[in-house]
Amino acid sequence: MGFNVAILGQNEERLNKTATAIHEINSQILVKTIVADLSGDATQVTEQIVRQLEGFDISILYFNAGYSVMELASNQSEAALRMFRSNIVTHQYLFQELYPKLAARKTDASRRGGVLFTASV
């Protein structure tokens, strides 16, 4: 059957294409798409995402963000700040809010979960 999947990104069209591709592989997987800019205010972004994930069973938290080197080179200070928020700050806020849901699964050995962070920093 597989895991249900929540995917976050800035581009709704790409999110929808990814959701469609997942459904083509396994139509039983519930895919939740959330349009969010992780480089914004971490508190507001986290609240928005957590609200949309309410009631969604979380098995694995996989945090990944990528940033273009060209964008960073064109406006170093602002781009570096956005990259830092996207790759580190907002991930930490989300982890703090979502981890309790994941940790609650540990009472049932068949429902364990995990956390993985990757970033472009």
From TrEMBL:
Q: Does the keyword Transmembrane helix apply?
A: no
Gene3D superfamilies tied to this protein: NAD(P)-binding Rossmann-like Domain
Source species, please?
Answer: Streblomastix strix
A molecular function (GO) term: oxidoreductase activity
Keyword line = NADP, Oxidoreductase
Q: Does the keyword NADP apply?
A: yes
Q: What is this protein called?
A: Uncharacterized protein
PANTHER family attached to this UniProt entry: HYDROXYSTEROID DEHYDROGENASE-LIKE PROTEIN 1 (PTHR43086:SF2), VERY-LONG-CHAIN 3-OXOOACYL-COA REDUCTASE (PTHR43086)
Q: What Pfam families does the annotation carry? A: adh_short
| InterPro entries the record matches | NAD(P)-bd_dom_sf, SDR_fam
Q: Name one GO biological process term.
A: fatty acid elongation
Q: Which GO terms describe its cellular component?
A: endoplasmic reticulum
